[in-house]
Amino acid sequence: MSTPTPRARLDLEIRPARPDDEPAVLHLFRATLGWHDEDPNEEFFRWKHHENAFGVSPAWMALHEGALVGYRTFLRWRFLDDTGRVVRAVRAVDTATDPAYQGQGIFRTLTLRGVAELTLAGDGIVFNTPNDQSRPGYLKMGWSLARRLPVGVLPAGPRSAQRMLTSRVPADLWSQPTHAGLDAGEALADWAVAAALLEHAPSTGFRTDRTPEYLAWRTSFAPLHYRLMLASHHDPAQGGIVFRLRRRGDAVEAAVVEQLVPDRRTGIALVRRMLKETGADYAIGLRTGPSAGLLPLPGQGPLLTTRALAASPPSPGDWTLTLGDVELF
């Protein structure tokens, strides 16, 4: 049997992306990711990578004979460790390779180029929750499994629990609108409201550096229909939850992305009220802090992976994350 002829090595130009590259980048994403014209993908891209409260996303490009054939970006993030020290981080997110150039190692080349330059720039760690298809590639590039994140659920009732159990398919990206609670983007644009709620944010462990500016940005993308349900309309200091509704198979899921509550009793009452007012089949979130009475789903959470840049990742048990830290991006 003859040996297959190896593919010729491409002469690629690898460089950081610039603002004027955006039209070519969006064209590549439309061609490779199956974006639908009716979905706000371009606005979503800009919200993530240009409006982020933690800063503009660094990105790298591969060009062949002047044409864009590969793209890789990292979402900026910021954590606090258990002592309150700030740790700069990035999340490995959007990437695309022209189908005609797949199998040439472009994804790996761009990712490792980004890792090297981010390390030199002083960013501490990179983290993400890759799916089963992409996780092996990250592990080969030096990522490590940190832990399975602890997911919890609360069904609205027996029939809803049955729909939840039979809807084992990926959730829709885009949210379903609801009038329950307040428009989170509008409410949390008020610095005083955000600051009062943040008194109940996680204060121990390795956690996102939650600020009023962060909460305002995180809930501001209108097509995601984030809602805020307060324990008291007159006093946000009594706590609240941020959520959105999304379809998962035959069920409507209420994703609780922030649990800014003083105690478990308040969290349980808010989630139950949210399920009643929205008609959602069940609530889902990460079991962080009071955990809003969510019941554990052993072995069902996303797998968190990390890689050291200029700092060492925390120990697996030190991570204190909410669904808002890991969903979506």
TrEMBL record:
<protein>
    <recommendedName>
        <fullName>N-acetyltransferase domain-containing protein</fullName>
    </recommendedName>
</protein>
<feature type="domain" description="N-acetyltransferase">
    <location>
        <begin position="12"/>
        <end position="169"/>
    </location>
</feature>
<dbReference type="InterPro" id="IPR000182">
    <property type="entry name" value="GNAT_dom"/>
</dbReference>
<dbReference type="InterPro" id="IPR016181">
    <property type="entry name" value="Acyl_CoA_acyltransferase"/>
</dbReference>
<dbReference type="Pfam" id="PF13527">
    <property type="entry name" value="Acetyltransf_9"/>
</dbReference>
